[in-house]
Amino acid sequence: MASAAEQLAANLNVEAFSKATELHKRLIFTLVAMIVYRIGCYVPIPGINIAAFSQAFQGQASGILGMFNMFSGGAVRNMAVFALNVMPYISSSIIVQLMGTIYPPWEKLRKEGGEAGRKQLNQYTRYLTVILALFQSFGIAMGLQAGQGIVDNPGIFFVISTVATLTGGTLFLMWLGEQITSRGVGNGVSLIIFAGIVAVFPRYLAQAFSLARTGAMNPGALVVIFALVIAVTMAIVFMERSQRRLLVQYPKRQVGNRMFGGDTSFLPLKINTSGVIPPIFASSLLLLPATVMGFAANTNLPSWLQWLPGAVGQLQHGRPAFMIAYGLLIVFFCFFYTSVVFNPEDTAENLRKYGGFMPGIRPGKRTAEYLDFVLTRLTVIGAAYIAVVCLLPEVLIGYYNAPFYMGGTSVLIVVSVTMDTVTQIQSHLLAHQYEGLIKKSKLRGNRGR
Question: Residue 411: its pLDDT value, please?
């Protein structure tokens, strides 16, 4: 017999959606926020010669700046106020979470601080975001000044205005993402990155057909790449829905003359517990050192730093150094973020507290060890799956000279964020139906009196 939740889920339809007024407000707020974000991607920073900058950008569009442009929704190509996007915020989140595992005061906040500790760590993340945004925007301002004819009036005032504009744009997007998470639908930061990737899809799609038409890319390769995108999408949906269900039993207990408990449930463990975070974190770390160096390529560096542009130049799509670094970072963040979001000791303690146990495994420490055993092996599969999804298209990109928007990272982000958002919409609809059932039961109870 289907559970109440399954019966409600089966009854989700257009009529149920039309009655969920709270969900309508959340969707409208999310849509308006996305429109505001897209408008900001076309507002250039002051003092830029757009024509000269476009010529300079074309020389690096296929490299690391092209990747940054994809994540920013084309804002880098326009050198807009949102050119930094939320990448400084993501980088600061990585640093704070890493410090939360090795720095004792922050580790105590993360484990024992509860809601107050989480808010304090979020505040540290915001402070670090400001520092990183200031650093990156200053490097971009100096790199723009070094370019020939890019800046109309170079000088200290241009640097100050650029730093203030780009940093302010990042802080605004950080705030906008938090507002979407609390007042809209879905994770705000993920949706901002999702919107940026989707927005540049038509441009890169046209670029792919142009390459095939001019002979720069084999038309057969284009068909293979599109087939690969479809196959990767299907694999992502299958793996993201896959989970290991651990049997949990609750013993019977007698209260007075009545028996309670004796139920059986499952503890679901996703194969990819970390979600879309590892490729985003890995991309962010690869973008951080290359962003400034990309613009400062024409700057005279000291003799002891002459090797730096060449090393950064190896971090291009299709290059072995990029793929090795990317793959290693993805695997690392899969294990790291899984350890952050899922604690076997806490889960085992919660099961023991409520009387739950796994057949054949003693509660407490043995249950925690078993959960860690299972989760580690699931994470190995999940890390391998994400690495293959993100790196396999990179090989074809380097071989066929395809536009990298078809890379596994962008497909993974788009599919995963779409699935998470749809799941949240369904959760809101289920909550609305539950509220309707509660109101009807109260009305019937009042009539019975």
Answer: 80
Does residue 266 sit in helix, strand or coil? Answer: strand
422: Cβ contacts below 8 Å, ≥ 6 apart: none
Closest CA to 77 of 45, 47, 33: 45
Q: Cα–chain-centroid distance for residue 317?
A: 20
Asked if residues 335 and 383 have their Cβ atoms less than 8 Å apart, the reply is yes
Element (H or E) spanning 254, and its range? strand 252-255
Beta bridge partners of 248: 265
190 Cβ contact partners less than 8 Å away, ≥ 6 residues apart: 276, 280, 413, 417, 420
Any idea what DSSP says for residue 185? S
Instruction: With CA atoms as reference, report the closest residue to 262 among 273, 249, 272, 279.
Output: 249
Q: Distance (Å, rounded) from C-alpha 177 to C-alpha 85?
A: 11
Residues in contact with 446: Cβ distance below 8 Å, sequence separation at least 6, in sequence order: none
The pTM of the full predicted model, rounded to 2 decimals, is 0.76
Tokens matching residue 18: 């039309």
Range 92-100, long-range pairs (CB < 8 A, 24+ positions): 92/125, 92/126, 92/128, 92/129, 92/131, 92/132, 93/125, 94/281, 94/284, 94/285, 94/333, 95/128, 96/121, 96/124, 96/125, 96/128, 97/336, 97/337, 97/340, 98/336, 100/340
Q: Which domains does the chain carry?
A: 13-438 (1.10.3370.10)
Tokens of 426: 């369904």
Supply the angle between the helices 277-295 and 320-341 in degrees, to the nearest 10: 140
Tell me what pLDDT residue 170 has: 92
Question: Token pair for residue 102?
Answer: 């090795």
Largest Cα separation within the chain, whole Å, is 89
According to DSSP, the residues that pair with 243 across neighbouring strands are: 270
CA distance 241 to 239: 5
Which two structure tokens, joined as six digits, stand for 366? 């043995």
Q: What is the pLDDT of residue 83?
A: 87
- Residue among 445, 388, 379 at smallest CA distance from 411: 388
> 140 near 295, Cβ under 8 Å?
yes
204, amino acid identity: Y
**Concatenated DSSP letters of 50-73:** HHHHHHHHHTTTTSHHHHHHHHTT
| Average pLDDT of adjacent 10-residue blocks, the chain of 449 residues | 44 65 87 91 85 72 61 79 87 82 79 77 90 87 78 86 92 92 87 85 77 73 78 86 84 63 78 83 70 53 55 62 84 87 83 80 86 91 89 69 62 84 81 60 53
